[in-house]
Amino acid sequence: MTSTTTTPGGLERPAVRRRRRKLTFDRVSFMAVFLILPLAIFVIFVISPFVQALYYSLTDWTGFSPTMDFVGLSNYVKLFGDDIFLHALRNNVLLAVVVPFVTIVLALAISVMITIGGPSKGMIRGLKGSSFYRVISFFPYTVPAIVIGLIWAEVYDPSAGLLNGVLTGLGLKGFADFPWLGDTRTAMPVSMFVIVWSFVGFYTVLFVAAIKGVPAETLEAARLDGAGRLRMAVSIVIPQIRDNVQTAYIYLGIAALDAFVYMQAMNPGGGPDNSTLTMSQELFTVAFRKGQFGYATAMGVVLAAVTLLFAAVVFTVSRLTAGRDVPRAASVRRAEAAAPLAKESRA
Amino acid sequence: MATVTYDNASRIYPGSNIAAVDSLNLDVADGEFLVLVGPSGSGKSTALRMLAGLEEVNSGNIFIGERNVTDVPPKDRDIAMVFQNYALYPHMTVAENMGFALRIAGVPKEERNQRVREAAKMLDLEPYLDRKPKALSGGQRQRVAMGRAIVRSPQVFLMDEPLSNLDAKLRVQTRTQIASLTRRLGVTTVYVTHDQTEALTMGDRIAVLKDGVLQQVGTPRELYADPKNVFVAGFIGSPAMNLFTADVTEGGVKFGTAVIPVERDTLGSATQVTIGVRPEDVVVSLTESTGLKVEVDLVEELGADGYLYGHSEVDGKRTDIVARVDGRIHPNAGDTVYITPKTGHVHVFSVETGERLGGAVVD
């Protein structure tokens, strides 16, 4: 904030005194284009729908009538007694726990092999043919999610699916008509597999780029210090790309909390016993099939809250595990302020 | 402790047909401080990285002690390296950085801490053990990198231009520290630098490389007094030796109007030779006399000494000449002086091969 007004405070503290700047056309137009305009767009198209959604969630709007009644928090009360929604919430939480973790572990493993998994002698490089694998691993990401869902729904088909065909071909006759997506025990795991499968390639490419940014000398130094490939990955590489991992975790968590497209393509009805039903699917059904917009909006608000909570948890965990860095930074500053410069010149 | 031997070791980078290091033969004695020196692209760093195992050896062998390490991965070579940019692990504290190798080796925690503490004491790093590298100055980081190498007590220290990121004053201080430290520890050290002053001041012996080919190995004194060829002559010594082509004449070699006596046997049938005279080995005369007539362009005063930069006509070509003069009483720019080499201080090289003709200069 450049102070264009003089306050008594400003006069008392000459250290923060600033030259008063004139509101020239230059400055005004700059503010208009770079501050006021974007802010206005943000308020109109982002903030106001949020507020609007909050309001609708407090009404009994059907979505198709011009009138609605204010019903207070009764939608939310109903929501937390709604077994189907709570089941969907549980499914989403499970997805948000499993999918990012598995995806990131796999993506890290593959990216490490591609970048530093090569021979332990000579220059640090990936496995033989790593550039080929890098391209291959990206393929699933280039296919639209809906297509992936439909393809895998076919693969999992009990009688005509590729998976059962292969399994029976291997002599496992018990799988002849096994309904992968129709059994409460397997529907969720196989759906998760599809989501993980579709994301691993992208995060592999992301992590490969991050690992390439790690100074090669630190890897060489680790090698001379006696570290093998696994040790190098765990002790040297991953700590240096933890910011990327954290970001990936949040993206994946948000994707898993949605998961609408995959689930809708594979099990449009929410799976056996609603075992793969997600909040977004239920929201969609309630809003457009049952015509309860107010209630569906309340679900949307809860979904947004859960997503924010997830991001907060990831940040907190990340900060706690990064651990000592934060308090230490402060102690270092203190030590530096205290340490006489003479120390250095003695070096 | 161990010796290091390069036996015809070559490195050819993929996609190139010129060897970055060409059939290097080099023996480093146990506990010796050997400096690899050469201009950029001379293969000195590649040679060091071959010894570290960070660069493949395309032909030949490398031995540490009696052990052929050519195909041994770096982690099993028992060597420690100090990198030009230090390569500290940014997410670890100074103590963790220094103790990392010991942790991997499975050294118990108490012993590890004790060894880290000892090394830190040696390097004045004790107050900084809990800091991360980013909270250290360049000099401190350099010492941590040294400490990381010392803690390991390896068979060989490898140093790849460890001082080039320090400022001039700190570089001179650290130079002597490193030299005395490695001598105290008695560990064989191979040190790479492009700075011939560093090489001369630190090395027990110096190996000069150019274009991947070893030019000469010897003590600093040998390299200074008896350079094997024109390249070594011009590379070792600062300011560089004056080198120019001169005609062979009756009884010796022409030096301006003077004749330097050189034995006929040394010259063979050559009609021209390259002669070299160090700036400190010439006599400068303001009065007209025999010798090389030099127009003074500039005189650099360095306090006790000064260096006279001038040019002369040799063989119809403009040749730059440097001469050491007294720091207070010296000719000035624009003057004409006559220089002659001190007796016995002229290096003679073949024009065709650049190889030295005749023996070392007299000291």
Secondary structure elements and pairings:
The complex is a heterodimer of chains A (347) and B (363).
Chain A: H1 8-12, H2 25-56, H3 74-79, H4 83-116, H5 130-142, H6 145-155, H7 162-169, H8 187-212, H9 216-224, H10 229-240, H11 242-258, H12 260-266, H13 279-289, H14 293-322, H15 325-338, H16 342-346
Chain B: E1 4-12, E2 19-28, E3 33-37, H1 44-52, E4 59-64, E5 67-68, E6 79-82, H2 94-104, H3 109-122, H4 138-151, E7 156-160, H5 168-185, E8 188-193, H6 196-202, E9 205-210, E10 213-218, H7 220-225, H8 230-235, E11 242-249, E12 252-255, E13 258-261, H9 264-267, E14 272-277, E15 282-285, E16 292-301, E17 305-314, E18 317-326, E19 336-341, E20 347-350, E21 356-357
Parallel strand pairs in B: 3-8, 3-9, 6-7, 7-8
Antiparallel strand pairs in B: 1-2, 1-4, 4-5, 9-10, 11-12, 11-14, 12-13, 14-20, 15-19, 16-17, 16-19, 17-18, 20-21
Helix pairs in contact in B: 2-3, 2-4, 3-4
Q: What does it look like?
A:
The complex is a heterodimer of chains A (347) and B (363). Chain A is built from 16 helices and no strands. By secondary structure, chain A is mostly helical. Chain A folds into 2 domains: 10-56, no CATH class; 80-346, MetI-like fold (Orthogonal Bundle), CATH 1.10.3720.10. In chain A, helix 13 (279-289) packs antiparallel against helix 14 (293-322). The model of chain A is unreliable at 1-12 and 324-347 (pLDDT under 50). Chain B is an alpha+beta fold and 363 residues long. Helices cover 25% and strands 35% of the residues of chain B. Chain B is built from 9 helices and 21 strands. Chain B has helices spanning 44-52, 94-104, 109-122, 138-151, 168-185, 196-202, 220-225, 230-235, 264-267, and strands at residues 4-12, 19-28, 33-37, 59-64, 67-68, 79-82, 156-160, 188-193, 205-210, 213-218, 242-249, 252-255, 258-261, 272-277, 282-285, 292-301, 305-314, 317-326, 336-341, 347-350, 356-357. Chain B has a 6-stranded mixed sheet with strand order 6-7-8-3-9-10, sandwiched between helices. In chain B, strands 13-12-11-14-20-21 form a 6-stranded antiparallel sheet. Chain B has a 5-stranded antiparallel sheet with strand order 15-19-16-17-18, with no helix packed on it. In chain B, strand 1 (4-12) and strand 2 (19-28) form a beta hairpin. The model of chain B has no long low-confidence stretch (mean pLDDT 91). Chains A and B meet through helix 9, helix 10, helix 15 and helix 16 of A and strand 6, helix 2, helix 4 and helix 5 of B.
